[in-house]
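Q: My labmate handed me this sequence with no annotations at all. I'd like to see what the chain might look like in three dimensions before we decide whether it's worth expressing. Could you predict it?
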Amino acid sequence: MIDSCAAFWYDGRTSQRREVTVSLVECSLIVSGPDLERAYPLAEVRIDQRLGRVRRTLRFPDGASAETGADDFLDELLKTQGRGGFVGRLHRWEMSLGKAGAALLLTLAVVFCLVRYGVPLLAQRVAFALPAATEEAIGRETLQILDKVALQPSALPKERRLELERLFRAMVSQHPERRGWRLEFRASREIGANAFALPSGIVILTDRMVEIAENDHQLAGVLAHETGHVTHRHALRHLLQNSATALVVAGLTGDIVSVSSFAATMPAVIINAKYSRDFEREADAAAVEYLKGRGIPVRRYAEILARLDADHYKERDAVPRLGEMLGSHPLMLERVQNVLAAE
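A: Here is what I predict for the chain of 343 residues:
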């Protein structure tokens, strides 16, 4: 066992340093040097833990201190004090390239699992735990913002809107969460053919979407898809998964800190939402289930998906880019194939 080391001594009153020897004698530390001899109970001395190759400090009860690079000696002192076990092992890991690499890989794996599984699970729990009044407030304020920045009044004939409203009411009439659900019509040159659902159950159908549909069976599939997003709280979960702070606060308190600030973020999420494959599959499954339950051929929904995709690329005068093919949002071809496979 190492019982002494060289160190630099500071008396705690001046900046002058002196070369000394620090020795362990029974349960005391003896500091000795030219014209200096002091003894301290080991239990009263504070010793820094290892940090890389940084020189460590012994702090004495009278305000004096000593610096040394004699890590092994200080580790022995810590063990004698009963404080050296875990930190010493941690330092050995730190100084071992292989072990440090393993620790890094373990950390990355934990972070990946947290982001891939933990965050979505917490977002789902929070989204389903929000009070109905909070969801309604978010939906109402989100629609108000959308009307200011992206949507215009619908130009569809009143009779046509009434027909589609009847279709929607019949669709949701048996749904246990239908309170507050309603269909809204809007025009938007920027958004084009589209339909999207707000957290409160407000489903927005654009004029262009109605125009490209060949029949109401196709639109029924679209509306059923959007009610699937509402049922599974996809908009809320998508936003929460991308808002770590809001997710943590909501998870701890059971409420959204500020409905207004939350609603202010929602329009961008709704318009630009690229839901995960799982979200889209869940919503598509809701559309398929509804159509099958009404004896409507499932291919009607596949047809409107294909027409929607063609209309979007026609407007952009482009073909799918590689980034879109590899992105988290499934290609329309994949969705169409999945729908047809369920027929």
